[in-house]
Amino acid sequence: MLALIPYVGLIMAIVLGVKGREWAWKNKRWDSVEHFNRVQRLWSIWGAILLLVPFTRGMLAAIFSPALESGL
Length: 72
Description:
Blueprint: H1 8-27, H2 33-70
């Protein structure tokens, strides 16, 4: 919910980006460092997917929507 407050969302994103892995390591019992890194890698992959898919769809819409409106 903090992300919906102007400027606070930006600050929280920066704080979580800097301290997020450290807090995740301290917050849960992990089987090993490898297990922790594997879970963090999966979170990173899903985060990239959730950012890239809408971005790609938006770019494709921006490219192809003028052609569709002109009747080509």
